[in-house]
Amino acid sequence: MKPAAFDYYRPTTIGDAIEALGSSEVSKVLAGGQSLIPSMNFRLSLPELLVDIRDVDGLDKLEADPEGVTIGASVTQSRVMAYEGAADIVPGLRSALRFVGHLQIRNRGTVCGSLAHADPAAELPALAIATGATIEIRGPAGVRTVGAGDFFLGPFWTDLGHGEIVTGVHFPAQPSGGVTVVDEIARRSGDFAIAGLAAVFEIRGGAVGAARPVSFGVSGVAGRMAAAEEAIRGFDPGNDGSDLYAAAYEDAADAVDDVHANAEYRREALGALLVRAARSAVGSNGDRTGV
Amino acid sequence: MASNPGSREADVSVTINGTQVTYRVPARLLLSDFIRDVVGLTGTHVGCEHGYCGACTVIVDGDAIRSCSTLAVQVDGSAIRTVEDLADDGELTPMQQAFHENHAMQCGFCTAGFLMTLESVDPDDYREPEQVVELLSGNLCRCTGYQNIVKAVCSAWGVEGHKGT
Fold first, then answer.
1. pLDDT tens, position by position, for chain B (165 residues)?
2. Hey, of B28, B48, B67, B131, which one would you mutate to test binding to chain A, going by the most A CBs within 10 A of its CB?
3. I need a surface site. Which of A106, A138, A165, B110 has the fewest CB within 10 A?
4. A20·B5 Cβ contact <8 A
């Protein structure tokens, strides 16, 4: 079980990286490689050319300001977790990253790599949608930005075109009065989620004013939950959660069946996760404790 | 279409356990196979080969990583430490001694990975037994020796409150 042969290239400029990606029909960007290399070990992925971006100038940027946190393509998940400035501005980053693989994987895996890989059970795409993150992409036609809500199209499928690279992601600061919750159900610590939720809540007067919950691991792609967004308005600590649960269940109508859990289980788990998250959100900012 | 600028082989220069080495290797060579088959250090074990079991954990520039999910060419220029570096003068480290005293292994296949994960972190960050368990969650032991492993770590680091047998 070893990767099939491929050509390897390690450029130092983004221009050379993009040109190289365009030189083969089957080229892939190599950042941390924590999804790509296991997939190549199984020969599920058979690239002709790997473009290693570790030495590319300008991709190792990690910056936080009151507006948000900007993370370059070669920044590892461990580096973001350890960065105190990021934790204060976008608390969801640390909440999500603690679920990503294990220490050894986060030490090499990158935030942008997880977004570009778009595993339906991954935490970071869901967090990006929930927070309204913006993804910066460079390619043969220049630079463009895409909102996370428009970036994830399906399982391992994004808006990225051939020859394009995710060069960075910007997570906007959590709004004042906001609470971010990332939670999931997995068989073992570090496993992919059977059902997961990332949600940003705006708390007004002890109740949920508005929220953007995003499911992951439930269907083929992380996505917003339209019924739950409606049902959650006004959720307060006295709410029994049944309407919210039913809305989340409805939102998960396209839940998948697999060896880990059937669709019914995933729908129920998502409902339970959302009610738990909403209670925690109003409990943490409200004047009454969540039930 | 421009010609592909990549190559099937590349030079890898690393410091491994303090010794500088350079080899020309296939780009597809995994770091685990580089360490075992090219450098000849067989203390690093290869288990699942897809980043799940942690048996192949080594330290690269201070960080514990999975050597089976990393290409050798990716760590060109780095400093690597493997389990052979721990007792290179023949004297066990305090953690190795604690593993010995607590019988923290059965077959021993996973042990090098556990030791390198432990070697990579600051014990001050792990003061509760639950934190030790979380730290070790990326290393599998199929002899189910976890209780004694956690006991050994708590003993070596002076972590109190472990309820294991």
1. 668 999 999 999 999 999 999 999 999 999 999 999 999 999 999 999 999 999 999 999 999 999 999 999 999 999 999 999 999 789 999 999 999 999 999 999 999 999 999 999 999 999 999 999 999 999 999 997 799 999 999 999 999 988 765
2. B28
3. A138
4. yes
For the beta carbon of residue A46, count every other beta carbon within 10 angstroms. 13
Residue numbers in A near B3 (CB within 8 A): 23
With an 8 Å Cβ cutoff, are B137 and A42 in contact?
Answer: no
Strands (E), A157-234: 157-158, 165-172, 178-185, 195-204, 207-216, 223-224
Instruction: List Cα–Cα distances, B30 to A75, B34, B36, B42, B130, in angstroms.
Output: 22, 6, 10, 14, 33
pLDDT in tens, A115-152: 999 999 999 999 999 999 999 999 999 999 999 999 99
- Confidence (pTM): 0.95
pLDDT in tens, A231-247: 999 999 999 999 999 99
A184 and A191 Cβ atoms separated by less than 8 Å: no
Asked if A78 and B2 come within 8 Å (Cβ–Cβ), the reply is no
Q: DSSP character for B108?
A: -
Instruction: At A254, list the tokens.
Output: 């396209």
Beta-strand runs (E) in B17-162 = 19-26, 57-60, 63-66, 79-81
Q: DSSP code of A193? A: P
Q: Which residues of B7-21 are buried (b: 16+ CB within 10 A; e: fewer)?
A: eeebebebebbeeee
Strand residue runs (E) in B69-165: 79-81
The helix/strand/coil state of B84 is helix
Which residues are CB-neighbours of A184 under 8 A, at least 6 positions away?
Answer: A99, A123, A193, A194, A195, A196, A197, A216, A217, A273
Inter-chain touch A50–B27, beta carbons under 8 Å:
yes
Number of C-beta neighbours around residue B165 at 10 A: 6
Nearest to B64 among A4, A22, A103 (CB): A103
Write the CB contacts of A109 (distance below 8 Å, at least 6 apart in sequence): A32, A34, A35, A76, A77, A100, A101
* Residue B14: CA count within 13 A, CB half-sphere: 26
DSSP letter, residue A66:
T
